[in-house]
Amino acid sequence: MDHGHGMGGMAPPPPSSMTNGTTMHHTMMMHMTFFWGTKAEVLFSKWPGTNTGMYYVSLFFVFALAVLVEWLSHCRLIRPGASDVISGLAQTFLHAIRVGLAYLVMLAVMSFNAGVFLVAVAGHTVGFLLFGSRVFKKKPDVDEKGSDLTPMRC
Fold it and tell me: Family assignment (predicted)?
């Protein structure tokens, strides 16, 4: 059984449908190792496609998603003194949004495009620098907590 050896890290295309007794194959092959290049599929089928400009738009999109995940991880949107039930529901909603966006970044990285990987790491880094590190934070009051959500832990 050949497991894609000798195919440059790319898996053979799966059969898509049977037409008149012949099997038709997808023309796009999915990479199974990191690669450099602007011809990649990131998150959606045929996006960004072969347009180099759209590739850079997808890189910016992944970067912005990663920064947004870090902002949600360290922001304070719920006011102190709010109802416990309302605060709990708001925290749960914010957690669901943060996890969903984090999974989108992870799925983008699973395109195995090295550029996408680098901008995802850069986005998380810039987001943490802006929202999680001490560089841009004012000193908290004695009773004030840092954020509404606890940071994601490994």
Answer: Belongs to the copper transporter (Ctr) (TC 1.A.56) family. SLC31A subfamily.
Does the pLDDT at position 8 exceed 70? no
Can you read off the two tokens belonging to residue 42?
A: 């990131």
Domain coordinates in residue numbering, the chain: 1-31, 34-131
59 or 31: whose pLDDT is higher?
59
Distance CA 53, CA 49 (A): 10
Question: What's the rounded Cα separation, in Å, for the pair 29 and 133?
Answer: 41
What is the predicted pLDDT for the residue at 31?
74
User: In the block, which residue shows the tokens 């983008």?
Assistant: 108
Residues 6+ away with beta carbon under 8 Å from 128? 70, 74
Instruction: Verify cis geometry, omega within 30 degrees of 0, for the bond prior to 48.
Output: yes
Burial 52-69 (b: 16+ CB within 10 A, else e): eeebeebbebbbebbbbb
The proportion of the chain whose per-residue pLDDT surpasses 70, expressed as a percent, equals: 71
Q: Which has the higher per-residue pLDDT, 137 or 1? A: 137
Vertex 105, ends 55 and 74: CA angle to 5°? Answer: 125
